[in-house]
Amino acid sequence: MRPDDWHLTEDVDDFLARAGDFLRSRPGPHVMQLTWAERVRKRGADTVGTGTRLFGVLERAGKVSATFYRLPPRALGLSPLTPEQADSLAVRLAALGHSLNSVSAGHSTATAFAEAWQRHTGATPTLRDTRLRLYGLGTLTPPKPLPAGRGRVLGEQDLAQVMLWCGEFARAVGEVVSMDAGSWAGTRFADKRYTLWETPDGTPVSIAGMNPMIGGQIQVDIVHTPAHLRGRGYAGAVTAEVSRAALAAGARDVVLFADLSNPASNALYQRLGYRTLTDWAVYDLSCAAPEAG
Questions:
Q1: What was the pLDDT predicted at 125?
Q2: pTM > 0.70: yes or no
Q3: Phi first, then psi: what are they for 195, rounded to 5°?
Q4: C-alpha–C-alpha distance, residues 114 and 101, integer Å
Q5: Taking the CB of residue 217, how many other CB atoms lie within 10 A of it?
Q6: What is the CA radius of gyration of the chain?
Q7: What whole-number distance in Å separates Cα of residue 115 and Cα of residue 201?
Q8: For residue range 5-19, what is the model confidence (pLDDT) as tens digits?
Q9: pLDDT tens for residues 31-44?
Q10: Per-residue pLDDT at 103
Q11: Which residues make Cβ contacts (< 8 Å) with residue 145, sequence separation at least 6?
């Protein structure tokens, strides 16, 4: 394949017209491609990042085999790539003078691109300590017994509670985000539907969110229980509730990410019926000047 086989565009509609069917054919591994493209399509690029956006489709004879997105300041996001595809993309981006801070993808893809970027630019890749695993739901198996209480879908009247706990979640995972009524709509948390687990007296104890359905798939995105309430079964209960809500909404596939440094949450998701799809990796890339070829 040639580096010029990558079709590059700043137009998300062009990207989805070319690659939409390909991405939806395997929505699990393409969850981040689908999610961010849809956010840009709905909100506009100015609301999801700063700098020049760029989408890419590897296409030969009308057949798509790979994609990427770049929404600064976020990492370069890649669909699954072979080492040859990763190398051709690195050549193309380096030749155009792009400077990349980081790359995020399935572990083998991220590694292949990081190594290719080093070969073609001299940049030094550094694997981040945070290791994620992408899970897909098989057969949902709710915990037994459930803790006392019930699940409840949150509405606009619950916004203060949602912002409080999303802010706690963001800080826990190292995200720097302003979380108040004025800035809420511009965050990645605003387009989710939230489910709360509350005790019989109505006290909220755990929250889970899910992204809008894209390509028949819903991503469960954020599961949070305040530290002083953990170990009581609330996270399992609310994750089961939000997973059930995703299936009831018509999702064929339900996915979520888990931090591998937290064995308790990984074990919990597996007990609920989630199965490993792929491990995820992020490499930081030093800011060496790109060199063509």
A1: 96
A2: yes
A3: -120, 140
A4: 11
A5: 22
A6: 20
A7: 55
A8: 999 999 999 999 999
A9: 999 999 998 998 77
A10: 97
A11: none
Buried (b) or exposed (e) across 88-118, using 16+ Cβ within 10 A? bbbbbbbeeebebebbbbbbbbbbbbbbbbb
The 3-class SS string of the chain reads: CCHHHEEEECCHHHHHHHHHHHHHHCCCCCHHHHHHHHHHHHHCHHHCCCCCCEEEEEEECCEEEEEEEECCCCCEEECCCCHHHHHHHHHHHHHCCCCCCEEEEEHHHHHHHHHHHHHHHCCCEEECCCCEEEEEECCCCCCCCCCCCEEEECCHHHHHHHHHHHHHHHHHCCCCCCCCCCCHHHCCCCCCEEEEEECCCCCEEEEEEECCCECCEEEEEEEECCHHHCCCCHHHHHHHHHHHHHHHCCCCEEEEEEECCCHHHHHHHHHCCEEEEEEEEEEEECCCCCCCC
Is the confidence at residue 46, as pLDDT, over 80? Answer: no
User: Tokens in use for 114?
Assistant: 């990081």
Counting every residue written for the chain, the total comes to: 293
Enter the tokens of residue 183.
């800035």
- Per residue in 114-158, pLDDT tens? 999 999 999 999 999 988 999 999 999 999 999 999 999 988 888
Instruction: Tell me the CA distances in angstroms from 2 to 5, 87, 91, 130, one per residue in order.
Output: 5, 10, 9, 33
Contact status, residue 110 vs residue 281, Cβ threshold 8 Å: yes
Distance CA 206, CA 174 (A): 20
CB 175: neighbour CB atoms within 10 A? 14
